[in-house]
Design goal:
The complex is a heterodimer of chains A (113) and B (110). With 113 residues, chain A is an all-beta fold. Chain A contains no helices and 11 strands. Chain A is globular and about 40 Å long. Chain B has 110 residues and is an all-beta fold. Chain B is 0% helix and 55% strand. Chain B contains no helices and 11 strands. Chain B is globular, with a radius of gyration of 13 Å. The chains are: A mainly beta (113), B mainly beta (110). Chains A and B meet through strand 4, strand 5, strand 9 and strand 10 of A and strand 4, strand 5, strand 9 and strand 10 of B.
Chain lengths: 113, 110
């Protein structure tokens, strides 16, 4: 069964460093998302992406964040200068056209020290 | 602020019983409703989705939607210890983003 894959599974970084989280969505999906979940809290929407552009972003998704689809398979989330409060699980999700059912990857646990 | 509310639990049920999980939402324009299961330290896994008022059954799971009362529920029949997890209610309005509740922790004891 096709699945969303995310790498790395765990990323440790120093405050102020840049990180790139990578996702390979399900192959025939056209809609891509990033969510995050701080430990013990709810899953929060960050950004949605379709047709090579951001379609919606939340208040969390400030200028420190960016997304890119550098090729036909990868979808990345970049955090330019990480803060302690960026420590969370980051989930990538994808959905195919016409059916808004989002399937989640296993997540990347980001630890900012 | 569009909210999705769930009782955090834990909801404890014996093996074989029916577990009933509830969710309310604030945005009357919400269109699609999803139940995800999340094991500790894992990602959300889609269990059910429902778009129309009424019941939708899939195996041991039944989703119920009442748009007039703005609630959606999930029934799990013949609960198993492997069903022990946190169940997340998620709601979609007129955009693509999912708004999640905090989840209800379900414990099924043998």
């Amino acid at each position: 069964e096709p699945e969303v894959t995310q790498t790395p599974s765990h990323q440790v970084t120093q405050m102020g460093q840049e990180v790139i989280l990578r996702c390979v969505p399900i192959s025939n999906h056209l809609y891509f998302y990033w969510y995050r979940q701080i430990l013990g809290q709810k899953v929060e929407f960050l950004v949605s992406f379709y047709n090579n552009e951001i379609s919606e972003k939340s208040e969390i998704f400030d200028d420190q964040f960016s997304v890119e689809r550098p090729d036909g398979s990868n979808f990345t989330l970049k955090i330019r200068s990480t803060k302690l409060e960026d420590s969370a699980m980051y989930f990538c999700a994808s959905a195919r056209a016409g059916v808004n059912i989002q399937y989640f990857g296993a997540g990347t646990r980001l630890s900012v020290l | 602020q569009k909210e999705v509310e769930q009782n955090s639990g834990p909801l404890s049920v014996p093996e074989g019983a029916i577990a009933s999980l509830n969710c309310t939402y604030s945005d009357r324009g919400s269109q699609s409703f999803f139940w995800y299961r999340q094991y500790s330290g894992k990602s959300p896994e889609l269990i059910m989705f429902i778009y129309s008022n009424g019941d939708k059954e899939d195996g041991r799971f039944t989703a119920q939607l009442n748009k007039a009362s703005q609630y959606v529920s999930l029934l799990i029949r013949d609960s198993q210890p492997s069903d022990s997890a946190t169940y997340l209610c998620a709601v979609k309005g007129n955009t693509d983003k999912l708004i999640f509740g905090t989840g209800t922790r379900l414990q099924v004891f043998p």
